[in-house]
Design goal:
The structure is a single chain. By secondary structure, this protein is an alpha/beta fold. It is about 25% helix and about 30% strand. It has a single domain, classed as Rossmann fold. It has six helices and 13 strands. β1, α1 and β2 form a beta-alpha-beta unit. It is globular and about 50 Å long.
């Protein structure tokens, strides 16, 4: 069973539907016991960094997520779920993230010819072709974000994209994987990433 963490963020339903495409049993839950006993855990979401951290902390789910990672349970963060893994975000000054990965979340610079938020398709430059991005190279994935990750651990960066500048859009460390783009909205190539995760 795959546990999808329910903490009141947006876009969670579409992730559950995407896993159902593979006949995978998913449970949308905020129950720590169910999350920690799951075969895999997913943290999706769209919304504000500070608001999301507040909801996770209020439910005690911040420590549960850290425990999932410590136990080496396969974990996937999507969009906001990726950003929350890092130390902090310019979106919410003074709010600490989960701190599982070193780095911060930065605002996408406003430059002529570029729209913020970044909404639409952008190509990936895959840095780790033997992990969850196996079989992908310069594929296009669907993005919806105004902030992006800059990882301090360059060895964990699985993919980057170019928008206003180079952005880290996927990270992988052991059984922990996260992506800024939405694989559940990125067609067959995106679904292949979710399939790779189910094989973990």
């Amino acid at each position: 069973m795959t546990a999808v963490i329910d903490y009141g963020a947006g876009n969670i339903g579409s992730v559950v539907k995407a896993f159902a495409h593979f006949g995978e049993g998913c449970q949308l839950t905020a129950d720590p016991a169910k999350i920690l006993s799951a075969r895999r855990v997913v943290l999706p979401g769209v919304g504000s960094f500070g608001d999301a951290m507040g909801k996770l902390q209020a439910a005690g789910l911040d420590d549960v997520i850290r425990e999932v990672v410590l136990r080496d349970i396969p974990f996937l963060g999507i969009c906001l779920g990726m950003q929350l893994l890092f130390l902090c975000s310019e979106e919410s000054p003074g709010v600490k993230g989960l701190g599982i990965l070193p780095g911060q979340v930065l605002r996408i610079p406003a430059l002529p010819g570029y729209k913020v938020p970044h909404i639409g398709w952008n190509s990936l430059s895959v840095q780790k072709p033997d992990g969850l991005l196996q079989g992908l190279d310069q594929e296009y994935m669907y993005f919806v974000h105004s902030f992006y990750v800059r990882s301090e651990d360059r060895e964990s960066v699985a993919a980057v994209t170019e928008y206003t500048e180079a952005m880290d859009v996927a990270v992988e460390r052991g059984n922990l994987f996260a992506c800024q783009f939405h694989p559940e909205k990125s067609g067959d190539k995106g679904l292949s990433i979710l399939h790779n995760f189910l094989e973990r």
